[in-house]
Specification:
The chain is of the alpha/beta class. It has a single domain (7-43, 55-61, 91-185), classed as P-loop containing nucleotide triphosphate hydrolases (Rossmann fold, 3-Layer(aba) Sandwich). The protein contains 6 helices and 9 strands; from the N terminus they run βαβββββαβααβαβα. It has helices spanning 19-32, 89-100, 115-120, 125-133, 148-154, 169-180; strands at 7-12, 37-41, 44-47, 50-58, 64-70, 85-87, 107-110, 138-142, 159-162. Strands 1, 2, 3, 4, 5, 6, 7, 8 and 9 form a 9-stranded mixed β-sheet that branches. β4 (50-58) and β5 form a beta hairpin. α1 runs parallel beside α6 (169-180) and α2 runs parallel beside α4 (125-133). The two termini are 13 Å apart.
Length: 189
């Protein structure tokens, strides 16, 4: 399948607004519609103390690895852009390989593009290349509000959806599902 210019939805919102949960719901809806969903999703590791780590999951295989953990007091991180997180170099390499192999697909998910990717040319650069390719029907890209402008400069045709809180996830998921995965959008086997 070769798609010339797939649609790009940028999901944005502050921490704990439900961005990853929304991605998971959209992936489920896409699969029910017979779409090939590919890319990465980054669910949090949570404890009573809050978010302690970030996982990365390959949407095609389900394989999951630890992407990052909270840095400890006095621990030097590799990037001043993400001082609170220690990223695992092997998981970043693995995730980039997953993203290089993600397209072509029907639904491309890149959860998330942060300051490493959009401001410093590090991190999920294969995710940026996959979105640049347009080789999908729909790309779902996650970025924080402070990075929406940078993403919009790179992909001027994207549509931005801002989640205000986890309570908005269901409404937004239903809206996206109706728009992209209705019976008229389902591909023929």
């Amino acid at each position: 399948m070769k798609v010339k210019r797939g649609k790009i939805l940028l999901l944005s919102g502050w921490r704990e607004a439900g961005k990853t949960t929304l991605c998971e719901r959209i992936v489920a809806a896409a699969r029910r519609a017979g779409w090939d969903a590919a890319g990465v999703i980054s669910p949090p590791d949570l404890s009573r103390a809050g978010k302690t780590g970030i996982q990365v999951r390959d949407l095609r295989t389900g394989e999951q690895r630890l992407l990052a953990r909270r840095s400890r007091p006095g621990e030097e991180t590799r990037s001043s852009l993400t001082p609170e997180w220690m990223f695992d170099a092997e998981s970043l390499t693995w995730g980039n390989a997953v993203l290089r192999g993600a397209v072509p697909c029907d639904l491309l998910v890149v959860d998330e593009l942060g300051p490493l990717e959009l401001l410093s040319g590090q991190g999920w650069q294969a995710g940026i290349a996959a979105v640049d390719s347009g080789d999908y029907r729909l790309a779902l890209v996650v970025a924080r509000p402070e990075l929406v402008e940078a993403a919009s400069r790179r992909w001027p045709r994207l549509a931005v959806i801002v989640l205000g809180s986890p309570e908005h996830v269901t409404v937004v998921a239903e809206r996206i599902t109706r728009r992209f995965f209705s019976q008229s959008q389902v591909k023929n086997p």
